[in-house]
Amino acid sequence: NTCEYIMKKSCKIEWSGEKIDPSKMAIGVQAMLADVGAATAVEMKSHTKEHDVSKRLSNSITWQTKDRGSNAFGEHRRDDRLESPKEDGVLYVGSGAPHALFREIGSGPHKNPEGSEEFLDSLDKWAIQVLGISRGSPSAYDRYRFWMLVDSIRKNGTEAAPFLAPTMPEIPKIVASAWYKAVKLFYTKAGNK
After folding, report:
1. Cα–Cα 20 to 30 A to 124, which of 39, 47, 141, 144?
2. Given this model, what pLDDT does residue 180 score?
3. How far apart are CA 114 and CA 52, in angstroms?
4. What pTM value is reported for the model?
C-alpha cells in the first residue's frame, strides 16, 4: 500500500487483481450464508445433546439456502428435512422434526389423541433408554410407571429444552466471523500493490 501525491494532493491506495463481476456477487453471498448456516447449525446442536436421547432432533438440524444446504441424518432424514427458501439471499437454519417446536417451547397438556401412537412409541423408546422401563415390560410395576409417566405428560405437558433461543445471541458473532472470512478471502485473491 502506498500513498502518493497527485496534482490535487490526494492520497490513495490502489488494489489490483481479479475484478469482481457484479453478476457473481450472489455467489459470494450464498457462500457466506452457507458458512453462517453451517456454524449456526453446529451451535444449535450443542444445545440439544443433553436432552436428545434418540438423536432425532440433533440429526434433523440443518441449514438451507435456495440452492445449497446440509442434510438431515438418521432414519427420519427424509421426514425431517428443512424446506429451502424460494429466493436467493435467504438462509433457513433449524429443524423440520415434528417435535422440534415442543422441545423449543415445551408442550401443554396432551388433550388431543391425534398422533398418540407416535407419541407413545417415541416415549416408549425414551423410557427404555433413560428409565429402563417399557409399556410392554414383563414387570407390572414397570408398566405402571410407564403409564403414570404418560398420564403425567398428558396432564401437565413437557418442559422446554430450547435450542433456538440460546443460539440467537451467538448469531451476530457467527455472521461477523463469516464476514471476516469472506473479506479476508477477497483481499487474499485480489492482492494489493
Report:
1. 47
2. 86
3. 23
4. 0.74
